[in-house]
Amino acid sequence: MRLTPRFLLSAAAPLAALPGRAVAEGMPQLHFKDPLLQGQVVWGALIFIIFYLLLSRSALPRVASVLKARETRIQSDLDLARRARKDADQAQKELFEAREKASEDANATIQNIRETTKETIRVQAEETAARLEAEIKNAESQIALSRNNALSSINEIASSTAMTLAERLVGTADQQAVTAAIEHARAAGADHVS
Amino acid sequence: MASGSTIDALGQFELHPIFGSFGEALRFSQAPLFMVISSAVVLAFLYIGMKPKAVVPGRLQAAAEVSYDFVHGLAVDTIGEEKGTAFFPFIFALFFFILVGNYIGLLPFSYTFTSHIAVTFALAITVFILCILTSLRFQGMNFFKHFMPEGAPMALSPILVPIEILSYISRPVSLSIRLFANMVAGHVLLEVFASFTIMLAGLGVVGDVLAVTPLVLNIALTALELLVGLLQAYVFAILTCIYLREAVDH
After folding, report:
1. A15 CB near a chain B CB, below 8 Å?
2. End-to-end CA separation in angstroms for chain B
3. Integer Cα distance of B153 and A12 in angstroms
4. How many alpha carbons lie under 13 Å from residue B160 in its C-beta half-sphere?
5. Distance between B217 CA and the closest CA of chain A, angstroms
6. CA B157, B163, B164 angle in degrees (round to 5)?
7. Cβ within 8 Å, pair B35-A55
8. How many CB atoms lie within 10 A of CB A58?
9. Sign of the alpha-carbon torsion through B221, A14, B14, A29
10. For B179-216, how does the pLDDT look when each residue is reduced to its tens digit (9 = 90+)?
11. ipTM for the complex?
12. Mind telling me how many Å the CA of B74 is from chain A's nearest CA?
């Protein structure tokens, strides 16, 4: 809405003139010779300057300081909260890592024990196997020895037995014949045995 | 005032000396009185509002802070961060001087100093001179280049330069007349309708009933005036910001 004073006057004049009197003096605002009108400009300038100075030097900085203090406080609280969260995150991470490490250590220990045990068992088994082997060998050699011994004493026993038998049966015994016979029998027997 | 059967819609704008001989001698009329009252109201609003200095503000403090933030945002958004902050107290003073002047003028038995062209023109010419000084300070002689639009043929300069100068000079005129005319129009309408009520009431029973109509209209007009008062203060402040922006960076 843009109203010029002239438009306003022309609009207001018929209204005012309607009942009788015209706008005799016109607008008081246009009486620039009026000392009160001039005075109000000077007073206005003075009041506005004082108003401006009070605002810019005192009132507005006061508001600004309160706003600034609030911003600082909120910022510091935020920083504090952020730092606390960071610490908590760090602690959680450390805890997690410690747990992870402990779990790994435990696994390693278990693995270690398992392997050691396995190794021990294997070594023991090997030792046992070696001992058994040795014992078997030993036994076998003893058996072979006994067998050989037995086999070597067979001729003697056989010849003495045959001599005795022959003496009882015949009365005399030819040593050489008996031995030959025994050799013969033994060879047949050995063939039979083997 | 309605005296008898005439409507004197313009009498309300007359200046009278107050405080007897003191006002007479110092040319102190209602207008300066209400300027003092308006300034005091704004300052009291800020001082009392900000007194608690609370981190969580109460109602009055919140209102004071909102008014600060509103004008601060206006100045900084338009003029720029650094220079906007420098001009902010001036914009604040201007906005609230006009706003409270407009609003206090709506109270009965008060006076609207913004309805005087001398006052609004003084404010506008202050803005105008400030803009010129700011322009010279930040642009030096480059400021005068703006009166010759860039890229326009030289031959047109005898026409263009006077037009540009005229449009520049018309700024304080339009700034002051806009505010003055709006306030005068509003108050004339209020006065006229109020007079209608009184005149109709003098006509007897039928008039008593009919007199309600201008009264209701006046109530609606008061609401409109509240809007206009705020709007004109805002327009004055934002135009000042725009002019200052042009002055600082162009």
Report:
1. yes
2. 50
3. 47
4. 13
5. 17
6. 85
7. no
8. 12
9. positive
10. 999 999 999 898 888 888 888 888 878 878 888 888 89
11. 0.87
12. 15
Q: Which amino acid is at A78?
A: L
- Note the pLDDT tens digit of each residue in B135-177: 888 888 878 877 877 777 888 888 888 888 898 899 999 999 9
Residues from chain B that touch A16, judged by Cβ atoms under 8 A, are 6-10
Q: Tell me whether residue B191 is exposed, middle or buried, using C-beta atoms within 10 angstroms of its C-beta: 0 to 12, 13 to 18, 19 or more.
A: buried
**Residue ranges of the alpha helices (H) in chain B?**
21-26, 30-49, 59-79, 81-104, 117-139, 157-201, 205-210, 212-248
Q: Identify the sign of the CA torsion B227, B232, B233, B238.
A: positive
Q: Which residue has 């009252």 as its token pair?
A: B37
Query: Which residues of chain A are within 8 Å of residue B55 when distances are taken between CB atoms?
Result: 69-70, 73
A124 by Cβ neighbours in 10 Å (0-12 / 13-18 / 19+) ranks as exposed
As given in the structure block, the two tokens for residue B130 are 């400030």
- The residue count of chain B comes to 250
Which residues on neighbouring strands pair with residue B17, listed in sequence order?
B29
Distance CA A51, CA B96 (A): 10
Which of B32, B50, B185 faces A43 most closely, judged by CB atoms? B32
Q: Contact, B39 vs B96, CB < 8 A?
A: no
Of residues A122 and B145, more confidence is placed in: A122
- Give me the phi and psi of B28, to 5 degrees please: -95, 110
**Using CA atoms, how far apart are residues B80 and B78, in angstroms rounded to an integer?**
6
